[in-house]
């Protein structure tokens, strides 16, 4: 099973890479057909990626969401999934142009982590952990997409509507709304992540909130997106200011995910 | 006071109140809170002044202490920000309640002008019933507009108007439950090895550790820590439980958790070759010498598989008892007399006293807790979730159809939150049904 996982994982990276190249060619040659092919390739990549994760789960005999490698690959999977949903739902292939490199970056980070299957320490053996981490993946995936949308929004402001980009990117108003949909999905799942994490901590350590740096940073992230929501409701602040907060929010997500483990002391060090 | 002055003052107060309950103030508070949390996470919490001096130098350390940055999450300014946030949320929700109720009613009852003025429209629909179904709207109600034309009206997801309100209420309960818990909860850690009985703080309960087991897998990794414990309340009542990580137990209204583990050992002290005392010490504990209380032996650390690595100091190679070693410190009148590593066959001699360590064994840390407000905080969390689902996924939509003179229907749709996305969907859904378009 783990052998199969290795093969699937490597193929996933190759397919994602090809999809990214196709997206870039689409942008430079401006050929519509290429974007469709890129999206199809990305769907194929996602299927293989799902297969890799499932194989690992079977091989390890548990939910494959407990160490740095497993979480990183799942994080990439989350962004890949949510970006595809948004691409298809809002007919917006340019989103893929920006999302594909980020997916590749994160799965590349996963590839650098140790792939050894380790047994779980007792505190990690909880079904709440399953909920906690799977909701985090959807949350992080959605925030990845809102980050990309925030960047596209800021770039759009610098471009003429008549340019190729201008034609393939929705209007300001619509872009802002799509960004809002992705933040909404992310915030809902982040809230779920924090609550299930609190329930798990209460059972494992007898304390549902202890201001551990990882907890604190998930709260900071949560607050940043709450600020985003309220800014959007103020006339004149939706759009650009909101886009900036969507970008700051994702920087917090990345910091919560990587920075906290490496830069700050705390007990979430295993994942 | 003249009347004029009084009204200016009242106006001032009113303005201050308006600001304190406003959304810009909420945004400012949220930004402050995010910055405070981010800042506090950068500084290791709960250390002593000396620790901060060693880490950051004299000036930064005194700044940290002055601003309570060593315990930021319980500092006056953190509590102040949270309190303002609560007040802001509370008043915001109170003020908006009547308006929300009337808006909910409004959505239910047709307001032809509002819908037709603000909405999107598609003309020339033949089959109104089909159109409502295509728009995924509930069955419409019949009515008339001011000019006596027949109308059909349906609204859905009115409940979604309550999303923000429910979410804010949830946050309020969450903060309240958490803070009240912080002030009132009882929380104790009891250390011990099997056979020991220790008091649980000031609760009057006695906790006996009957057994403590570390379940290992084949590869020597830990599968589970399990303790069997007995609690007794001093009035003859006893309850027993088995607890392990992630599986706490409730006894006498308190929750008992298998929290962590460490090493304990027996310390024996002789004087002039005669037995003086012995005790089981967990690492981090100390004993005063019986007939010389100023002399203290502190058990710093235990290394089951001891190795001295150049440049890194004492380490343990594994969790197995291959080469046990004990790190101790001896204090006399508060001054350090000595600190060293002692092997099992070695004796530490301090004047006429001789100290040995033996019988290393794992001890367990049992956390004992009671927090009556945990359910309140969790209820708050559930409400926040619910509010977010309402706000994001039950978006209120109103659709009005008006019968025109030629017998076709004009459809108007209004969805404040949907913007151009709603407009597109609405037009798309009705395109085929409209003969104006075809
Ligand atoms: C200091 C406290 C806060 C105040 C005074 C405040 C105030 C408001 C106000 C006035 C609205 C507009 C409601 C509407 O248009 O229906 C709103 C919306 C909202 N607020 Fe807050 N808010 C606060 C904190 C928060 C926090 C911490 C969150 C956490 C996520 C939050 C979540 C929301 C949501 C989800 C909405 C609806 C936004 C939307 O539907 O796009 N609020 N808030």
Give keywords.
heterodimer, A: 271 residues, mainly alpha, B: alpha+beta, 3 domains, six-stranded antiparallel β-sheet, 37% strand, binds protoporphyrin IX containing FE
Provide a descriptive summary of the structure in words.
The complex is a heterodimer of chains A (271) and B (438). Chain A is mainly α and 271 residues long. Chain A folds into 2 domains: 1-70 and 92-115, no CATH class; 124-271, no CATH class. Chain A contains 9 helices and no strands. Chain A has helices spanning 2-29, 32-60, 68-89, 94-111, 127-157, 164-168, 172-205, 213-233, 240-263. The longest helix of chain A is centred in the last third of the chain and has 34 residues, at 172-205. The relative contact order of chain A is 0.10. Chain B has 438 residues and is α+β, with helices and mostly antiparallel strands. Chain B folds into 3 domains: 3-91, no CATH class; 109-157 and 395-437, 2-Layer Sandwich (TATA-Binding Protein); 186-370, no CATH class. In chain B, strands 4, 9, 10, 11, 18 and 19 form a 6-stranded antiparallel beta sheet that branches. The longest helix of chain B has 33 residues, at 76-108. The relative contact order of chain B is 0.15. At the A-B interface, helix 7 and helix 8 of A face helix 2, strand 7, strand 10, helix 9 and helix 10 of B. Protoporphyrin IX containing FE sits between chains B (23, 26, 29-30, 85, 88-89, 92, 163-164, 167-168, 171, 388, 391) and A (226, 229-230, 233). Protoporphyrin IX containing FE (HEM) sits between chains B (23, 26, 29-30, 85, 88-89, 92, 163-164, 167-168, 171, 388, 391) and A (226, 229-230, 233).
Number of helical stretches of at least 4 residues of chain A: 9
Overall body shape of chain A = flat
- Structural class by helix and strand composition of chain B: alpha+beta
Number of domains in the coordinates of chain A? 2
Uncertain parts of chain A: 266-271
Counted up, domains of chain B total 3
Cofactors, ions and other ligands in the entry: protoporphyrin IX containing FE
Span between N and C termini of chain B?
Answer: 74 Å
Strand content of chain A: under 5%
